[in-house]
Amino acid sequence: MSSREIDVLVLGGAGVDTIVYVPELPLPFADSYMIRPGIETRAGQSGDFVALGVHALGLRTHHLDMIGDDHEGELVRALHRDHGIPLTDVLQPGGTKRAVNLVDPQGRRLSLYDESRSGEEDRLPEETVKTLAAASCHAHVVITYPCSFTLPALREAGLTLSTDLHNWDGVNPYHEPFAYAADIVFVSTTALADPECTMRQIVERGRAEVVVATAGADGAYLLADDEVTHIPAVTPPGPVVDSNGAGDAFASGFLLGRLAGEPPLRCGLYGAVAGAYACTVPSTRADAISRYELLTRVQELDSKGVLVSGGGA
Fold first, then answer.
1. What structural domains does the chain harbor?
2. Which residues form the Carbohydrate kinase PfkB domain (predicted)?
């Protein structure tokens, strides 16, 4: 580990979600629904969850993003304060990013993102980015606007970079600057017609050493050293109540292994354990697996001879 003061600098992805539990997805049209256990608004979007995840795993963490001077912004600041995660927030004139998450009884999620909060002129201050980058070992860049503008400064600072393209279809040009600038790329298989083809495209066109395509209950696929390997899903430690944040947790666990010098397959196991834990946490709560819990679970899986298998995505 480097002597720099920050292990993981997280850029972007701060915001607030309103959680609505629905009887099923897709939700059939009706005049009204009676909702239980209720509707709740809480801080926590992708960047918040990655910051929370790596912090809970014992990595020195710092989060940078644009946040509004509004009630939602105070919720985000309070989340970081309560968990002891350093946050540098830049004023977002359009207000704090927010979304509505519909969650069904199986824990599946449909997210509705409010795009009106960002403006074309929004930027993270270059000097702030450079100062934090100089103190960091690694940066995880969320694909929220305007994080793509920070990529050149982060590369110039000599950091390794990771990003999560979420449900990229392999075509949308918005995702390309992130996909081709990062050393570690996470992407969901949800919208990919040919996951392995997209994974190899990311390596060929960019600088990625590792690409991970997460596939929910089917586990994940790892492309490293020109070989695709299947990472089986790990049995969650409790009932599955919500998939929200599972991908962010996977990325957090993977980064713990990567920054500790573990081989990619081992990092994938760390990610699978963290992601499985996240599925047991209700949407209304912000929580992450601890370093002790993760390493203990990995040790248990080692003793059972959990295997990863070769094969395409």
1. 6-27+34-303 (3.40.1190.20)
2. 10-287
* Rounded-to-integer distance, Cα 132 and Cα 112, Å: 31
The DSSP element (H or E) to which 312 belongs, if any, is none
With H, G, I as helix, E, B as strand and everything else as coil, classify residue 287: coil
Q: What type of residue sits at position 49?
A: F
Question: Tell me, what DSSP letter sits at residue 104?
Answer: -
d(CA 98, CA 15) in angstroms, rounded, equals 5
- How far is residue 141 CA from its own chain's centroid? 9
Q: Describe the crossing of helices 246-259 and 264-278 by its angle, rounded to 10 degrees.
A: 150
Give residue-wise pLDDT tens across range 172-206: 999 999 999 999 999 999 999 999 999 999 999 99
Distance CA(134)–CA(208), nearest Å, equals 21
Rounded to two decimals, what is the model's pTM? Answer: 0.93
Q: Which helix (H) or strand (E) segment is 74 a member of?
A: helix 71-83
